[in-house]
Amino acid sequence: MDGERSHIPIVEDDDEGRLLLVRILDEEGVYESTAVASVAEARRCLQEREYAAILIDVCLPGESGIDLLAYVHAHHIDTAAIMVTGANDRELIDEAFASGAFGYVVKPYRVGELLISLLNALHRRELEMHSRAHMRELEEKVVVRTSALRQTLAPLEGALLHPISVEEVIERLSAALTVRHEESGAHIRRVSEYSALLADRAGLTASEHAKVRLASALHDVGKIGVPDAILQKPGPLTVEQRSVMQRHTLMGHKLLEHSDSAVLTLGAVIALTHHERWDGSGYPVGLA
Q1: How do residues 175-208 score in pLDDT, each as one tens digit?
Q2: What is the CATH number of the domain that holds 15?
Q3: Which residue(s) pair with 238 in the sheet?
């Protein structure tokens, strides 16, 4: 069915090369190609509809294929761009990938290589689209949770908080975050108590003491943006999963920064830096 086809423009100024690419894609039966001969024509096509992928020759009349690649990367992020060209130049290849290319196929085309490159590009495109959709969902969730957090931490507007108030805020924070198994109320309370102990040993004032105790309860608030499959995985994380997990420091900081509350401002710093290490081996910045 036509609805199952991937729509792909072919940008090639050579008539024979353009026809060859059209024939290769058409014979697969799962692609619908649109053949154009210039960057200007390609831009018009892209403005009329979104495409799954685009095949671009490097050497084109007027604007180059690299110029078009940069345009696609900037304005059509859901379109996977593949360079198809006779220019087998290492610097040009590096420039293409740096400009957002999903693949680079050199003439004369080997049909299998071209189709595999296209399939890989479409698969990567799908993964990236899912990732962006997931991040948008997380950002919306952060907005909702931020409101809940601010309501939970409203008692912090006073100067010193009575110890009972501290415990109450921590319990309410635990409920507001609705986070997973390791972030129980007991976990939040333990982190707060350890932080208070360190603040005391560092000679901070009683007022600063209270702020540290409460702000430290926010250290892992960014984990609301970590998928359950990663956060609750029983075994070791892959390199990619670890990278996703480590983003909780940045998300927590983003959630808490720019607040009028001194405690939330301190919480933003703690959320960002609580995985840094004295020897610079921590994250996200590698402070030492």
Answers
A1: 555 445 455 556 777 888 899 899 989 999 888 8
A2: 3.40.50.2300
A3: none
What are the structure tokens assigned to 137, written together? Answer: 């969902």
Read off the tokens for 140.
Answer: 């919306």
242 part of a folded domain: yes
Residues 161, 121 share a domain = no
Q: For 61-88, what is each residue's pLDDT tens digit?
A: 888 999 999 999 989 989 999 998 887 8
110 and 158 belong to one structural domain: no
For residue 160, tell me if it sits in a domain: yes
Global pTM value: 0.53
**Separation between Cα atoms, residue 238 and residue 67, nearest integer Å:** 36
The answer to whether position 169 is within a domain reads yes
Domain that holds residue 238: 153-273
Q: What is the mean pLDDT of residues 248-260?
A: 85
- What's the total number of domains in the chain? 2
How far is it, in rounded angstroms, from Cα 212 to Cα 166? 11
